UniProtKB/TrEMBL annotation:
Official protein name in the record: ABC transporter substrate-binding protein
Record keyword Signal present: yes
Keyword field contains Signal: yes
Localisation: Periplasm
PANTHER family assigned to the protein according to its UniProt record, in alphabetical order: ALIPHATIC SULFONATES-BINDING PROTEIN-RELATED (PTHR30024), TAURINE-BINDING PERIPLASMIC PROTEIN (PTHR30024:SF47)
Family per similarity comment: Belongs to the bacterial solute-binding protein SsuA/TauA family.
A Pfam family reported for this protein in Swiss-Prot or TrEMBL: NMT1
Length: 348
């Protein structure tokens, strides 16, 4: 089951062309002092820090709480806007590690470029937000009724997951029109029927009266009620930390320390006792959403942290292979995991 190819986005174009950009390190969004790592004799690792969503939370919190330094590496956060720039910066050597998914980096792996997945960051967190009346529909009915969906980017993961869901539920994957709408403005204005977004984007829209119609993180029906291929997408490792294979091979101690630092940070973040502190720390950063008042922001943070998980189990490789083939990201599948899964990557 292969979906027709989607329009190329800047992200995919940058990957396929393997464009090497000269990314300039900057201070971490949110006022971090990360650009000046302490002179403690530990190796320094340059980690991307995206400017929106929750993808940069673990790097920021782990650095601020001292988990990375405790485990043996200084993390220097480098602000970049998106995955295309991060992938190019990895190729150019101005960045050591970036969190990307296999929609981003799969085409580069297929073309023979050498990257290593060091440790996972979070699982599949996509959700569909709709009007209240549509949110009560079973998923197959919802997918057959919506005509327009807002997505962060055309051809990105949000588009592909919605298309794949529609096809797995017997619908026409091309019957839905996709509109670039990274902040949900089109849904608020009534221009779209639904929005594919992450947990933070969902919080914003739900605060404006819309409802979650489907979420991979918060299922409305028993997992067993969904088609087998949809079940495989639930809990699927999504965004992972990647480096060039050369950097990983040249810096084994930094890799091991970073893997442990991510595990320790995620364990701390997922402890319910730390929810208020996390929300408070993030409230003073670029990732804080001003449209969410204090209690709503705290609730959003506490509901979002459930997505973090450092493991990339073997079964995920098969699921990603099925997905990238079906969606046209890598029609012939990915290279063997032994070529891109780093030594020590948590799997169980």
């Amino acid at each position: 089951m292969k979906l027709p190819p989607l329009p190329r986005t800047r992200r995919l174009t940058a990957l396929l062309a393997a464009t090497v950009l000269a990314a300039t390190p900057a201070a971490c969004g949110g006022g971090s002092d990360a650009a000046a790592p302490p002179a403690n004799g530990l190796p320094t690792l340059k980690l991307v820090s995206y400017t929106s969503g929750a993808a940069a939370w673990i790097g920021y919190l782990g650095q601020k709480k001292g988990f990375f330094a405790k485990d043996g590496v200084n993390v220097q956060l480098v602000t970049l806007p998106a995955g295309a720039q991060a992938t190019s910066a990895l190729l150019g050597g101005s960045l050591d590690v970036a969190n990307l998914d296999l929609n981003n980096i799969g085409p580069a792996l297929v073309q023979g470029q050498k990257f290593k997945l060091l440790v996972n960051e979070y699982v599949n967190n996509w959700q569909i937000i709709s009007k209240s009346a549509d949110a009560t529909k079973p998923l197959d009915s919802l997918l057959s009724s919506i005509k327009t969906v807002g997505v962060p980017s055309l051809g990105g993961a949000g588009t592909r997951f919605v298309q794949y869901l529609a096809q797995l539920h017997g619908g026409n994957a091309q019957a839905i029109k996709y509109v670039v709408d990274p902040n949900g403005a089109s849904q608020v204005s009534g221009s779209t029927d639904a929005t594919a977004t992450d947990p933070v984007g969902g919080c914003v829209l739900e605060n404006q009266g819309f409802k979650s119609a489907f979420s991979f993180l918060d299922l409305k029906a028993p997992k067993e009620s969904y088609p087998a291929q949809v079940q495989a997408l639930i809990g699927l490792p999504a965004l992972s930390y990647w480096s060039s294979a050369k950097w990983a091979d040249d810096n084994p101690k930094a890799v091991t320390a970073f893997q442990q630092g991510v595990k320790d940070t995620i364990a701390w973040v997922k402890d319910p006792a730390n929810g208020d502190e996390i929300a408070s720390m993030l409230a003073n950063t670029v990732w804080h959403v001003s449209s969410l008042p204090g209690p709503a922001w705290t609730a959003c943070v506490k509901s979002t942290v459930k997505q973090f998980d450092p493991e990339f189990p073997p079964a995920a490789v098969d699921t990603w292979n099925t997905f990238v083939k079906a969606t046209g990201v890598a029609p012939n599948g990915l290279p063997p995991a032994s070529q891109w899964l780093a030594t020590g990557a948590p799997q169980q």
